[in-house]
Amino acid sequence: MLLLALTLVMAASGAVPAAAQTGTEATAGSPRPPELEGALPQGRLLGGGRLRVFGFQVYDARLWAAPGFRVDNFANHALALELSYLRAFEGQAIAERSLTEMRRTAPVSDDLADQWSAALRRVLPDVKKGDRIMGVHRPGVGAAFWMNGKPLGEIRDAEFAKRFFGIWLAPGTSEPDLRNALVTGAGS
């Protein structure tokens, strides 16, 4: 999904990531995703950005949240992160990269890593150019995922959800420029 796709490209090329491109290309002309009506009905678009790695366009990301969202307390807010892929990636590789990014912010035991990895592989499919995955953070409950508007499944683990969405929203993210672009319309 997300930064994961970036790291997949980096892993394949041995490259270091380029900064995220912010601006209108990730948000302009994009309609409100229909799955938000049931999952986050009061959600409003806070911001978005395009992730590029050495000229490769990876995905456009958009962040949706209800009024009152504060990035410094993101784990206590319902939110939706939408990724529109600009190239193909295997679901298993996305799951592996997600776990690597989650471990950047705090240690994860091997047993827990195995559980989270299996859960991610269960809900994350292979993606191709044009596919759209949305993850919805449900504070205290976990995360739910959709692809192109169709449900993929849930991971009912609040700590997993906090760490997963922290890939993009935690202060220690590997992509601070993308984080800033995503939370442009949020309070501090």
Which descriptors would you attach to this protein?
alpha+beta
Strand line-up in the sheet with most strands: 1-2-3-4-5-6-7
**Tally of individual helices:** 6
What radius of gyration results from the CA coordinates? Answer: 15 Å
Helix content: 25-40%
Instruction: Give start-end ranges of low-pLDDT stretches.
Output: 1-28
The fraction of residues assigned to DSSP E strands is 25-35%
Number of strands: 7
The ordered string of helix (H) and strand (E) elements is HEHEEEHHEEEHH
Mind sketching the topology for me?
Layout: H1 2-13, E1 21-22, H2 36-39, E2 44-53, E3 56-65, E4 79-85, H3 91-105, H4 110-123, E5 132-138, E6 142-147, E7 150-155, H5 158-169, H6 176-182
Helix pairs in contact: 1-3, 3-4, 3-5
